[in-house]
Write a structure and sequence with these properties.
278 residues; Spore Coat Polysaccharide Biosynthesis Protein SpsA, Chain A; 5-stranded mixed β-barrel; two-stranded antiparallel ribbon; 10 helices; globular
Amino acid sequence: MKKTSPISVCLFPAAGYGTRFLPVTKAMPKEMLPVLTKPLIQYGVEEAMDAGMNTMAIVTGRGKRAIEDHFDVSYELEHQIKGTSKEKMLADIRHIIDKCTFSYTRQIEMKGLGHAILTGETLIGNQPFAVILADDLCVNESDGVLSQMVELYKKYQCSIVAIEEIDPSQTDKYGVIAGEEIESGIYRVTNMVEKPSPQDAPTNLAIIGRYILTPDIFDIIRTTKPGKGGEIQITDALLEQAKAGKVIAYKFHGKRYDCGSIDGYVQATIELYQKGVL
């Protein structure tokens, strides 16, 4: 049974350089790194589809054409394998292409996640939308992280960030939230800090690459000054919404692999292989 969702669009910021995986990412988008037989971004698109979304908005950059080619029909390849046992290997990606609309825009300068999301405004318009960072691969036995967040959005009608507890020594790698727990694992956010040192972190609750954002975030980003690292941080923009009580943090169910790091990428590959996810 197809899920109904108040959110139809999922934004994928995919313009980053992927420097932690050089030299392979010199000519290959990090979002196209394969975990078993599928690229990271395809796992994200499938998660968005499972949450009831059928419009995928992708913010790309130079050297990212492989993403567009992946979500397109390859007539030559399909002709070559037609009628063979290999034809079924393209069934999943053909289903995605048939069911989804893909739109693209380029981020000319890399000025942080907040700027990347603002670049996607032209593809989103005035509606709530989801954001997936493809290098955070999330695996679930039942509903995906975005599906869980959509159900929360139906109740709270505000921006939502997915969080998980991390080792306190790792806070300088994440946006970190503080807030009031209003239901089990659900927090009304009161503070957000981008990559704080462990001694300055308000908690060990870290934001991971899943968001639902209300469209007023675009105007807030426009007036957000560069923060940590000289970049426009989505954490800083969300803090403005949080001051009005309009951000929920959700401790999601499932397992996240940080496939933006070599350790997390290798762990995901091994564990998904062992689970028979092919």
